[in-house]
Amino acid sequence: MTTVEPKKRRVLIASSHPLFGQGLRSLLQARQATGVEVVGMVATLEQALAALERLNPDLIIVDYDDEQLNRDEFLARFVEGEKKLRVVLLSLQSSSEAIVYDRRTLAASQIDDWLEDWNITDDLSGLPARIPTAPRTVKPKEDRRNAMKHLVIAGILVLVVTAALIFALEQATLLPIQAAAQATPIDDLFRLEFMVIAFLFALIVVLMLYSIVVFRRKKGDTTDAAHIEGNTRLEVMWTIVPLATVLFFAYLGGHSLAETVRADPRPMEVNVIGQQWSWRFEYPEWGLVTTELVLPEDKQALLRLWSTDVIHSFWVPEFRVKQDALPGGEANARDLRVTPNLPGEYTLACAELCGVQHAYMTARVRVLPQEEFDAWVVSLTGEPSGDPAERGAQLVQQYGCVACHSLDGTVIVGPSWKGVYGSQEALSDGTTVMVNDDYLHESIVDPAARLVQGFQNLMPNTYRDQLTDEQIADIIEFIKTVR
Predict the structure, then answer these.
(1) What is the CATH number for 329?
(2) pLDDT tens readout for residues 278-334
(3) Which residue range(s) make up the domain with 458?
(4) Which of 26, 111, 169, 423 could be stapled to 98 by a disulfide with Cβ–Cβ 3.0 to 4.6 Å?
């Protein structure tokens, strides 16, 4: 006796998403629908019409969730037109099952129930003329309750982790102490940014780990995940919320900048001159020149910065603010306002890579109560010493000469001054010279004239304009004493 194999039901899939066809094949195979054969997949009505004669399908399954397909045209052409054919709408959006909208019943049904009730027939009479008005996705109340439960749990975990991170950041010393009024608005902005960073970190990491743990694939589960096209509301939200956050922080940044540059009516002016590799500070009001920056407490200082050679950058971390010192002299000066409010000693560093001794281009900064500052000014504006060597030693410190010329024989950038006076020095052109008053004077006002062998011309040629002949003579007298 010969067994007749039943005829397979030929199915044509209409969807512009390849994953839909793969998901449908998996669903049919998982439910052992052995009498079904997927003969093809089309993305448009025109492709479906072209495949009709060639593939001869018994059924067309249309992707209910594909907004690029015109379902009315499919139904009108294959159900109400000349070429009548069985058409069903299938949604894979449900979190638990595939939903079939069969026009025979005008109702949605689970894929298992529909497969059991599926009987191929040529009798298409009595089919309704409109698409069923069932909702796009059918989600049981239990699913909604579970989704809300997971959302609440994850939200609580995000808040807990955010609070823990903020507490940990508050305990850590992320910024140095505040020593200027300008530091307050800057630190307030930093603190708010740290809080937002903590929240975003918790939001991403907690939701990721929660999803990995709770929604992981269970052992033995080989089914496909839900077929999701997108969520317009979510996409709009994650565009608007970050944009609003960025604009809000832009406003806060502008407000913070306005606070740091706010000018007092009568600030104290200080000229800050950077050179390779030292700082010099001039107080025009008293005619002082120093190599340490001394400022009074609770009084705004207007620092006018420039450089004699390359770009340097003024930065005291406790003040928070920073400004470049550009070449070009006083005509190219840039302003920086600082209002110190915490007495103490701090360190000025150059924050711009400026050469081989950049790391050592530092200076001491002292903030003194007003009474102590006044006493410091008086101590420096008294009668000058009668000893030219002592006056020269003070000038050497004021103009930062020891940053390049050591007093103990150590070779830094320029020749050491220890025992140099009266010695014979070999020059870069092969000749020698006696180090006397004339040679030292020439080397100060025109350092490139006769270079010592083994050294480059790195000394600024601006001292001829900054020092008088008497001051240069005092410096030479000091050099004579360095033995």
Answers:
(1) 2.60.40.420
(2) 888 989 888 888 888 999 998 999 999 999 888 999 999 999 899 999 988 788 889
(3) 388-481
(4) 111
